[in-house]
Amino acid sequence: MKPTKARALIVEDDRAWQQILSEILTDAGLSVDIADSLDDAIPIIRAVPHRLAVLDLSLSSEHHNREGLRALDAVHQHNPGCTTILLTGFATVELAVDVLTEHGAFTCLRKENFRRSEFKELVNRALASAPLVDNKAGTASTPGVAERVSAIRDRLGPALVVEDDAGWRDILGELLGDAGYQPRLCTSFGEALGYLHREKYALAVIDLSLSGAVLNDITGDEPSAHNMDGYRLLASTRAGGVPTIVVSGIGSPEDIERAYTEQGIFAYLAKQTFDRHAFLQTLKEARSAGISAGELAGLTDREREVLDLLAQGMTNKEIAGVLVITTNTVKRHLKSIFSKLDIHTRSAATAKAIGGSIATDPSE
Q: How high is the pLDDT of residue 179?
């Protein structure tokens, strides 16, 4: 008897996206069901089990529509062994963390960053790590909250690239994209300063020398015989708590030392000896450093312990048990944390803990 194909569900109201996703899932060996609304999805979810489900957040033209979350919850209720992926054009880090921690999704992707090849790899990984149903308990065994949250830690973080050479700009942008960041590419001091004023960045990669401007005296001493507008930006990234990597073809030992001691850069990489693998490793190290920097530096040691445990999905009672304190003390710490980080929800606190940019949902 021929084995039955595993099934996949697509819940998406856009026909073009239905076709793209259906082709990829069919190529992965899945039999595909498609629904373009919550009302259409529910009967399908109840009728047959699915191995994988890909759902859009908004299933109508209304900007604040979030029926995709209701469909997501319905999938997990009726088919706890199904691996779910949320694909949306409206994702913020806070929403993505909420989708993972509260709604049990495998990951959350942004449509504007969609690449067929990457999605194919993601589908293969999702299928390989699909939750297994515990026959004794009758419930799904899912990966831990910390592991699932880490899947989106960098993918939703913007990174600023300030480089006037088109070739280097493309190289750095591609590497940052491959590492999961959202590159913002610019060529001049003024353009970069505008970006820094408009958006919060998880990382900055800056060339010290930017052409097309008059040489400036940065520190009172002449730093080099080159334009050093890139150096001027380091003060802005430092003030904003943005981990900064300098990738430059110029810079005397004195320039580089000042960049470390006066502007607090994370790393300096010379273009003459640039190595892709070393750059990617530096990104990982800078990411880890960025998580513990910035706003979180204002928390006390105890508050950081409470925040770390909250980010692992623990309740107030569980946090109290681990730290051997009362739940009322946990609540006081959380109140202080929320005040210092200017947030109002547990999912927002979790997003802060993983180093993301928060876009507060006014509906919360």
A: 82
Give dist(CA 81, CA 139) in Å, integer. 8
In this structure, how many other beta carbons lie within 10 angstroms of the beta carbon of residue 308? 14
Distance CA 200, CA 220 (A): 30
Q: What is the pTM of this model?
A: 0.46
Give the CATH number, domain containing residue 168.
3.40.50.2300
Partnered with residue 270 across adjacent β-strands are 248
Which pair of tokens denotes residue 106?
């495998």
* Model confidence pLDDT, tens digit, residues 230-286: 898 999 888 887 889 999 988 788 889 989 988 889 999 999 999 988 999 998 888
Three-state secondary structure along the chain? Answer: CCCCCCEEEEECCCHHHHHHHHHHHHHCCCEEEEECCHHHHHHHHHHCCCCEEEEECCCCCCCCCCHHHHHHHHHHHHCCCCEEEEEECCCCHHHHHHHHHCCCCCEEEEHHHCCHHHHHHHHHHHHHCCCEEECCCCEEECCCHHHHHHCCCCCCCEEEEECCCHHHHHHHHHHHHHCCCEEEEECCHHHHHHHHHHCCCCEEEECCCCCCCCCCCCCCCCCCCCCCHHHHHHHHHHHCCCCEEEEECCCCHHHHHHHHHCCCCCEEEEHHHCCHHHHHHHHHHHHHHHHCCHHHHHCCHHHHHHHHHHHCCCCHHHHHHHHCCCHHHHHHHHHHHHHHHCCCCHHHHHHHHCCCCCCCCCCC
Q: How confident is the model at residue 93 (pLDDT cuts 50, 70, 90)?
A: low
Please give the single-letter amino acid code of residue 101.
T
Out of 105, 131, 150, pick the residue that ends a domain. 150
Taking residues 23-33, report their average pLDDT: 93
The confidence band for 117, taking pLDDT boundaries of 50, 70 and 90, is confident
Count the neighbouring beta carbons within 10 Å of the beta carbon of residue 343.
20
Asked if residue 362 is part of any domain, the answer here is no
Are 238 and 164 in a shared domain? Answer: yes
Phi and psi torsions of 128, nearest 5°? -70, -30
